[in-house]
Amino acid sequence: MRRTATPSERTATSDAVRLIGLTRTYGGAPHEVAALREVSTTFPARSFTAVMGPSGSGKSTLLQCTAGLDRPTGGRVLVGGVDLSTLSERQRTELRRDRLGFVFQSFNLIASLTAAQNVALPIRLSGRRPPEEWIREVLTLVGLGERMHHRPAELSGGQQQRVAIARAVAAQPEVIFADEPTGALDSRSGREVLSLLRRLVDERGDTVVMVTHDPFAASHADRVLFLSDGALVDELRSPDSRSIAARLAELETA
Ligand SMILES: Nc1ncnc2c1ncn2[C@@H]1O[C@H](COP(=O)(O)OP(=O)(O)OP(=O)(O)O)[C@@H](O)[C@H]1O
């Protein structure tokens, strides 16, 4: 089930996503809120980026606009070179389904389906029939090869999140967007999920963009972007939790 380039075929230098002057305002004058102000950056292929910032700084809006779930009011988003603003609503839906993967805080699994059926669902929705060996391979990758036929209620929170990650990985997306993926987990399960995301990047060449409030979670990334009041104000490369927490505290008190 290898529709797009395999990780080894992906080049280390290409940009998976490019943001150019990304702007999103809500409401009109005099109550206009600038949730994003001319944010420009790139998310290189095979990299793990964390997005941080105080509450209300624009993290969710950045993720939503970058993943084509919300339309920016200015600037451009390029996913694999495709300018999202040139796509119709339907084409954006197809791009999300076929080329992007999503992991949410609340797992968003379908309760009546088994782990294997949940993982296969996005591929089925795009009209393809995923081979059972591929679904087994992806669930084995996340350490749940023995739990393929369990329903979400029969799995722990950490296991459910790993099923959700398997679901995101199964269609070989160009970028995996994770929104507070450890927010609902205890610290041990959270650590397992973060190690798994790290492994996807290091061993498979996946590209991960993660929004988080947690400096420890962000320390698993190659690079941490900091938003403040809708603007991209700083970035740290290969940071440790302590330096991330210190920078965040400065922005929160600013
Ligand atoms: N649909 C909306 N209508 C009006 N304002 C909005 C809307 N969505 C977000 N905003 C505003 O845009 C700004 C950025 O919000 P956003 O949710 O992106 O921040 P965040 O950094 O993700 O916050 P948190 O960490 O609290 O989740 C905030 O001022 C918020 O109130």
TrEMBL record:
ABC transporter domain ranges (all copies): 17-254
The keyword Cell membrane is assigned to this record: no
Record's keyword terms, sorted: ATP-binding, Nucleotide-binding, Transport
Organism of this sequence: Nonomuraea montanisoli
InterPro entries: AAA+_ATPase, ABC_transporter-like_ATP-bd, ABC_transporter-like_CS, ABC_transpr_LolD-like, MacB-like_ATP-bd, P-loop_NTPase
Molecular function via GO: ATP binding; ATP hydrolysis activity; transmembrane transporter activity
Protein name (Swiss-Prot/TrEMBL): ABC transporter ATP-binding protein
Domain of life: Bacteria
Any single GO CC term annotated in Swiss-Prot or TrEMBL for this entry: plasma membrane
